[in-house]
Design goal:
There is one protein chain. This protein is α/β, with parallel strands linked by helices and 139 residues long. It has helices at 9-22, 39-49, 84-88, 92-97; strands at residues 3-6, 27-32, 66-69, 73-77, 101-105, 118-127, 130-138. The chain starts with a strand and ends with a strand. The protein binds adenosine-5'-diphosphate (ADP) and magnesium ion. Residues 39-40, 60, 77, 105 line the site of magnesium ion. Magnesium ion (MG) binds next to helix 2.
Length: 139
């Protein structure tokens, strides 16, 4: 898939809405990038594009760890977890088995807990409000 660029938060939400149509119906999508890169913002667009919730209903799951939007979209943030055995208590495998899209921030820190087949979206801050999104489908 190509590289996308946005120049504002709203453009990133719009990009997420478009990507929602291209991403698999069921699967794991890693949102990879520094703090403030735009992972949660892109997730808002994807959730909205899936018709699972409005963008303003989507917030960072930094403290709650997992947000469920309907039965079809999950949004997970593993930032606050340090060890794989803490992550193991979340029951992610059960979510991965569901007929749902699972968006994960900071999931790349625990590669051994992820399915081999997944989509990775790398987000780079290329200055001020400019962001670059590189999408890779693995397997
Ligand atoms: P993350 O989840 O990666 O930590 P957030 O999506 O929560 O990042 O925050 C992104 C921040 O960057 C927000 O404050 C947003 O307003 C700002 N921002 C500026 N330009 C963009 C852009 N092009 N896309 C997304 N966010 C942007
Ligand atoms: Mg975030």
């Amino acid at each position: 898939m190509p590289t996308y660029r946005t120049a504002s938060e709203d453009e990133t939400i719009a990009l997420g809405e478009r990507l929602a149509d291209e991403l698999p119906r069921k699967g794991v999508v890693l949102l990879i990038g520094n703090l403030g890169a735009g992972k949660t913002t892109l997730a808002k667009g994807i959730v909205r594009g899936r018709g699972a919730a409005q963008a303003e209903e989507v917030s960072s799951p930094t403290f709650t760890l997992i947000h469920e939007y309907g039965a079809r979209v999950y949004h997970i943030d593993l930032y606050r977890l340090d060890e794989a055995r803490q992550v193991a208590t979340l029951g992610l495998d059960d979510l991965f088995d569901r007929d749902a899209l699972v968006l994960i921030e900071w999931g790349e820190r625990f590669p051994q807990l992820l399915p081999a087949a997944r989509t990775e979206i790398r987000i780079r801050n290329t200055g001020e409000d400019m962001r670059e999104f590189e999408i890779t489908q693995i397997q």
